[in-house]
Amino acid sequence: QVQLQESGGGSVQSGGSLKLSCAASGDTRCMAWFRQALGKEREGVAAIDRDGSTSYADSVKGRFTISQDNAEHILYLQMNNLKPEDTAMYYCAAGPSLTCATIASMYDYTGQGTQVTVSS
């Protein structure tokens, strides 16, 4: 079983930046970030495989960057030019798939989440 712990959330103004981190207790093939705004369904944000191939939701392309430190088992999400619509609880997820995407069913483990709030 893989345990995941997110950190780095907070409150920023529109146009600001935040960097989220997720520490994993072990090695995984796929990792991803999901988010869920109040009253909305959880949506995929970005995913990365062990080789560093990435995929992004259209809503964050060009603004968010997913990366990882394989040696330390840490997943990152650099978020720039944040918008009020980015406000949500952000979760990291880990799974065994060889091909990674922002599809929730591909992931077996999810962290507790970290809140991101963007004010206009």
SSE blueprint:
Elements (H helix, E strand, L loop, with lengths): L3 E4 L2 E4 L4 E7 L5 E7 L6 E7 L4 E3 L7 E6 L4 E6 L8 E8 L13 E2 L3 E6 L1
Parallel strand pairs: 2-11
Antiparallel strand pairs: 1-3, 3-8, 4-5, 4-9, 5-6, 7-8, 9-10, 9-11
Query: How large is the radius of gyration?
Result: 13 Å
SSE string, helices as H and strands as E: EEEEEEEEEEE
Helix content: under 10%
SSE class:
mainly beta
Strand content: over 45%
Q: Outline the biggest β-sheet.
A: 7 strands, mixed
**Contiguous runs where pLDDT drops below 50 for at least 5 residues:** none
Which shape, going by the Cα principal axes?
globular
User: Span between N and C termini?
Assistant: 40 Å
Regarding quaternary structure, what we see is single chain
Please count the beta strands (DSSP E, at least 2 residues each): 11
Count of discrete alpha- or pi-helical segments spanning 4 or more residues: 0
Give the rounded overall mean pLDDT: 95
Description:
It is a single chain. The protein has 120 residues and is mainly β. The protein is 0% helix and 50% strand. The chain has no helices and eleven strands. Strands 2, 4, 5, 6, 9, 10 and 11 form a seven-stranded mixed sheet that branches. Strand 5 (43-49) and strand 6 (54-56) form a beta hairpin. The chain is globular.
